[in-house]
Design a protein that fits this description.
mainly alpha
């Protein structure tokens, strides 16, 4: 594991320390989890954008035409 140095404004570091303490984890662990969460979110967006490029509106509409036009079940109504 590589060690990195991070400079933060004192006010942000104070908030970070408080949140980590509330979670019962170290500041390093809190930062690692926050970074992992952000990386996962960005990766998910990129994955979905690539999948969307492979999509076809024409094929979607063709499939949608096959769905029966019926009222929703009682438990599915808003």
């Amino acid at each position: 594991m590589s060690a990195q140095s991070l400079r933060l404004p004192k006010s942000l570091h104070d908030q970070l320390r408080e949140l980590a303490q509330e979670e019962g984890i170290s500041v390093n662990q809190f930062v690692m989890l926050a970074v992992a969460e952000k990386v996962a979110a960005i990766s998910t967006i990129e994955y979905l954008e690539k999948r969307a490029q492979r999509g076809s509106r024409k094929k979607f509409l063709e499939i949608l035409k096959r769905v029966p036009d019926v009222a929703p079940a009682e438990f599915d109504k808003l």
